[in-house]
Each structure stands twice: as C-alpha cells, then as structure tokens.
Amino acid sequence: MVNYDLKIALSENAYPGRGIIIGKSNDGENAVIAYFIMGRSENSRNRVFVTDGNGIRTQAFDESKMTDPHLIIYAPVRVLGNKTIVTNGDQTDTIYELMDRQMTFEQALRTREFEDDAPNFTPRISGIVRLEDGDMNYAMSILKSADGDPTSCQRYTFAYNNPLNGKAKFIHTYKCDGNPLPSFEGEPKTIELPDADIDTFTDIVWNNLNEDNKVSLFVRYINLKTGEFESRIINKNK
To answer: Any bridge partners for residue 125, and if so which?
Structure first.
C-alpha cells in the first residue's frame, strides 16, 4: 500500500473535483475531517461554504449568477448523535434520515447512485465518522458508473476500524482532469497526516489545491474523548 504525502497528493492533481479526507491526528486525540470542492464552470465556482447548525451547507456567492442549483447546493456535513456525515451531495440528507431510522450507512446509500450530469456521471462520495469509547471508526463510499456507462451503478464501501495515528484516507470524485471527467478508481488513498494543529492543517490543504479550480474547504477536528470539535472554513469567494 502506497502512503501519499498530503501536499503531493493534492498538488499533483489539477482537478480531483470534490474530495474527502478522514483520519486520526498524530497524537491520537482527534478525528480529522476535510472536505473541499472545486469547479471549472462559472456556476460551480459561484459557491461558498456557510455554517448550518453543527454542519455546513453550500450557497451561491452571487445569487444573480446562479444558473442551476441542481447538484451544487446541498449540505455536505451533518451531525447525527456521535456520527459526523460528510458527502459531496444531497445524499448527506439520505444518510442522516435513514440512519436516524436505524438503517446502516451502506443501506442508506443503496437508495442512491451517481449524479445525473452526463457525460461525466460524477460519483457520489461519502464518509462517516463514529466516536465510541474515546476512539473512532469510519467508513467511506463511492457510487460510480461502470466506466462511464450509466446503465450500471458500481457501489463500493470501505470501513476502517481502529485507525492508526497520523494516517488518513483520501477519496475524490475524479481521477484527474479530462473531458469527460474520469471517475476515481481503486481504494481511497492512504495519506500521511502532518503533525499539525487545525489551522496549519487547513492551510496545507488549501495551499496545495489548484489555485484556478479550488472553491471552498471545510476542516474539522473532533476530540475523541469529549466529542467537542473545532471547524475551519475557507472560501475563495469573499
């Protein structure tokens, strides 16, 4: 298994699309979550993250320039008890609502599939962090078309128990830039987390995303013992 340096994993890909990073801090005290969005079109770039309760949502930076809210306005992060849900679309709400009715993360996502944005058929990527007994476990999921063929939906779930200190997993929607955009392939990448506080970590992620394409970043550190959290938001649009 290849362990990627965070800076290299981000900086060497001009367009990973939307990305989720989940892991445990080097000192073993915090769950680390990051979610970023990128955009190529004016409509996709016309967004910001804003706080919404214990989570966040996207909204138009300039309402007059919003041409289609479909697929780009949603709540990427919601909290359900000891669980934090992070996704790249409105499946956040699906997971929240169905898990609140005692369904599992994987069962909830079986009701959804990739986005209807032909010819890209953007994958739906999702993550969930559960705090329990002073520690954490987490899972990630990707729902994608079969090599660009929308007649088949491929569903993958990756579960991580007793995650190692200083390690994270990184999944993103697109393998790289292209037309159409090629979907992410394989397992989530293993990332070496820097030994850093939340502000330093946030700066590292933001500064290594492609300057032209990055739009917004959300980072959260959750104390594994208390459940208390700190969050940071950076928006390119100000």
So the answer is: 142
